[in-house]
Amino acid sequence: MSIAIVGATGKLGGATLSALLSQKLAAPSSIVALTSSAPGSDKWQALEAQGVQVRHATFEDAASLEKALQGVDRFFLVSTPRIELDYNDAPPGAGRESHHRAAIDAAVAAGVRHVYYSSLAFGSPSKAGVMRAHIRTEAYLKSLQDAAKVRVTVLREGLYNESWPLYLGYFFDTKNDERGTVKLGGDGKICWTAIADLGVANALVLTQPGDEWAGRMVYLSTAPAGARDMREIAAMPGGESKVEVEIVGRAAHERHYVEDRGMDRPGVEWWASTYDALEDGECLIDDPTLGRLLDLVGKKPVPIEETVKAMVSG
């Protein structure tokens, strides 16, 4: 069995590769790490040092993807980081899903049997603009699965523990943020999930019998009891509140970050809808899959409190 990971030097892809190796779930020689880095670069050499096959591929070059996926049985498709493709209400086929579809079509053409797609742990339907490309990609995968062209598993990855500064007013500076008050469009509980835990869960799914996961969409996120909203996150560092959260609504949120803080309007408008989703409770997930998978290797999910403390004091 051969497993390919796109974005193998990124956060989620890297964590999944690391878990495959550290948990001894797959032989290094059976893993194909796809990277946009050039042969001989530091990232390329770091992958080679782990004993895996390293192949060059980019979302912009479908031919490179098809070539890199030759001989692969299972393909872990980590979503493209090119969020700007989604701006300005990108129509179907023009957003980030254009990259995903290129990779999926390449996988089918190369004879890949099973595609595992890393989606995001929001609701469906969702008010969050960040989910639009994911939902479109999920729909495309379902159409191929219904046509018996490939087996599909959708993994809706929990919002990263490590990403809390992004949700706290666009990359809150954990060391020296000048704001005493952070204005947000909304708030709601989030089942925060550590990247390393997601890597382990992904690796286990990738190496378990495919029949157990084919045709499924599951959430990989911590239990609702550990969910925290942004007000609670803001009060965590050192046990005392260093910043206050003010909920101003979406329109005022967009005006503040564009007019007062000088951010680009398309990016702000795309991201602001995230707070509408939080207000609706889209990220309060009740799915035991992550806990069950981590139990298989004797791990417990890393609580958000632990991550916040480490990031603030580190």
Automatic annotation (TrEMBL):
Domain of life of the source: Eukaryota
Top-level taxonomy: Eukaryota, Fungi, Dikarya, Ascomycota, Pezizomycotina
Name this polypeptide is given: NmrA-like domain-containing protein
Species of the source: Apiospora kogelbergensis
Domain NmrA-like: residue ranges: 3-164
